[in-house]
Amino acid sequence: MQWDLGLQGLGVLAAMSLGFGVIAQVFFGRTTTRWLLAIVSTVHFLGGLFISEVWFGWATEEDLQPNIDGLSFDEVLLIGLVPVVAAVLVSMYVAQRGRRVTSVSGRDGGELSTMSREPTFLEHDRRETIAKK
Questions:
Q1: Domain segments of the chain as ranges
Q2: Of 28, 37, 59, 121, which cross-links 63 as Cys (Cβ 3.0–4.6 Å)?
C-alpha cells in the first residue's frame, strides 16, 4: 500500500478534526467529559486517515473531487461524521452512567459514595463521627 497523503492534506485533516472537536466540546461539553475535544479530534483524524487512504485509497484525483493533496475531502467530511457522532454518544453514555453510580448525599458529609453497596464498618463509623459534629 502506498500512502499518497501529503502535508497539506494532513494539515486540512488536522484542522477539520480540531474544528469538529471544538464544536463537540462547545455543544456537548457539559454533558460529557472535559476530554471530549481530544477524543473527538483523535477519532475524526484516525477515521479520516482510514477513509481517505484505505477505503477510498484506490481512487485517483479524477475519481474524487475535491482532492486536497491526496485527501478525499468530501468523503472524509461526510463519512467522518459517523465515528464522531458515535464517540460523542458513547462519551455521553459513559458520563451519564458514572453520574448514576455515584451520588452526593448530605447525610454522609457530602462525600461521594456508591449506591450499589452497603457502607463498610469504617465508613459507617466515620459517618457517625461526622454527624455528631
A1: 7-102
A2: 59
For the segment 98-128, what is each residue's pLDDT rounded down to a tens digit? 766 555 544 555 555 445 556 555 555 555 6
- From residue 87, alpha-carbon distances to 5, 23, 115 in Å are 25, 13, 27
Please state, as a whole number, how many other Cβ atoms lie within 10 Å of the Cβ of residue 52.
27
Which residues 6+ apart lie within 8 Å of 116 measured at CB?
A: 101
The torsion angles phi and psi of 87, rounded to 5 degrees, stand at -65, -40
Distance CA 84, CA 40 (A): 6
* C-alpha span between 46 and 20 (Å, rounded): 13
Q: Which one is predicted more confidently, 124 or 77? A: 77
C-alpha cell of residue 106:
448530605
* Angle formed at CA 18 by CA 17 and CA 19, multiple of 5 degrees: 90
Does the N-terminal peptide bond of residue 119 adopt cis geometry, omega within 30 degrees of 0?
A: no
pLDDT tens digits along 17-52: 999 999 999 998 788 888 889 999 999 999 988 888
- 3-class DSSP state for residue 112? strand
